[in-house]
Design a protein that fits this description.
With about 220 residues, the protein is mostly helical. It has helices spanning about 1-15, 30-35, 50-60, 65-80, 90-120, 135-145, 160-170, 180-225; strands spanning about 145-150, 155. The protein has one domain.
C-alpha cells in the first residue's frame, strides 16, 4: 500500500521546531479550531503569525481528527464510485482510498507550510465583517485563493495554490494507471480548489448559525428538570 507508506514517511519528516512555544489554541481537535474559529474573527482582528505559531498550526492540522473524518468521508465517496477501479471493493481498498486522500492532504499541507513561511503568507480565514449576503459570498469565494501578508493586505496565495497542485500531482506517483495522468491531476486540483471555496463559504456563514443555535441550546438546558 504505497499511499499508506508515504503518509507514514511524511509524518516522520514533518518539521517540528518551535511547536512547544506556540500561542495557538490548545484544543486543535475542536470543530471551531478546524475551521479557524469558523470565521468569527474578522479582518480587523488580524495580526501576523510568529514562526512558532505557524509551525504549531501546521502540526496541529496533521493530527486534527476532523481532517481524518473528512478523509474517511471522501474515501467512502471514492469507494462508492469505484475510483480508482483497479483497487476494487472491500475494507482493504477502502483503507487504500483513505490513505490516498490523507497522502494528498499531507503533501498539500506540508508544501503550503514550506512556501508560506518564507513568503509570510497567512492562509487562515478571517470573516468579512460585512452584513449583506452577496458581498459576503463574494468575499468568501475569493478568499479561497488569497492570503494575507504581515501588513494585512491580501494577495494571490502562492503557497495555497502550490500546495494543492503538489498534492494533486504527487499523488499520481502511487495511483494506478486509470488515475495517473496529468489530466487526472488537473481535475483533482480543480476539485480541491472548488471544495476550498465551498468551505470558505461555510466559514463565513457558520458563525451566524452558531449564534442562533447557542441560545436555543441554552434555553433547552435551562428548562430541563
Amino acid at each position: 500500500m504505497t499511499a499508506v507508506r508515504f503518509c507514514l514517511l511524511l509524518l516522520l519528516i514533518s518539521p517540528r521546531a518551535g511547536a512547544q512555544k506556540s500561542a495557538a489554541p490548545k484544543a486543535v481537535s475542536t470543530f471551531e479550531s478546524y475551521v479557524n474559529m469558523a470565521g468569527s474573527q474578522t479582518a480587523k482582528d488580524f495580526r501576523p503569525l510568529t514562526q512558532d505559531e505557524r509551525t504549531s498550526l501546521y502540526l496541529g492540522s496533521l493530527v486534527n481528527p476532523w481532517g481524518f473524518a473528512k478523509a474517511a468521508i471522501s474515501g467512502g465517496l471514492d469507494q462508492w464510485h469505484d475510483k480508482p477501479e483497479e483497487w476494487g471493493q472491500g475494507w482493504g481498498p477502502y483503507g487504500e482510498r483513505v490513505a490516498n486522500i490523507e497522502g494528498q492532504y499531507l503533501v498539500q499541507k506540508t508544501v503550503t507550510y514550506l512556501i508560506s513561511s518564507p513568503l509570510h503568507e497567512d492562509n487562515r480565514y478571517f470573516g468579512s465583517g460585512r452584513h449583506a449576503f452577496w458581498p459576503r459570498l463574494e468575499y468568501a469565494v475569493v478568499s479561497s485563493v488569497l492570503a494575507r501578508h504581515d501588513n494585512g493586505k491580501r494577495h494571490i496565495s502562492v503557497s495555497q495554490l502550490g500546495g494543492v497542485a503538489a498534492g494533486a500531482f504527487v499523488a499520481r506517483l502511487w495511483l494506478p494507471p486509470s488515475q495517473s495522468s496529468a489530466g487526472d491531476a488537473a481535475v483533482s486540483f480543480g476539485i480541491t480548489m472548488g471544495s476550498n471555496a465551498a468551505f470558505s463559504v461555510v466559514k463565513e456563514f457558520l458563525p451566524d448559525l452558531l449564534r442562533r443555535v447557542a441560545p436555543k441550546a441554552s434555553n433547552t438546558a435551562d428548562s430541563s428538570p
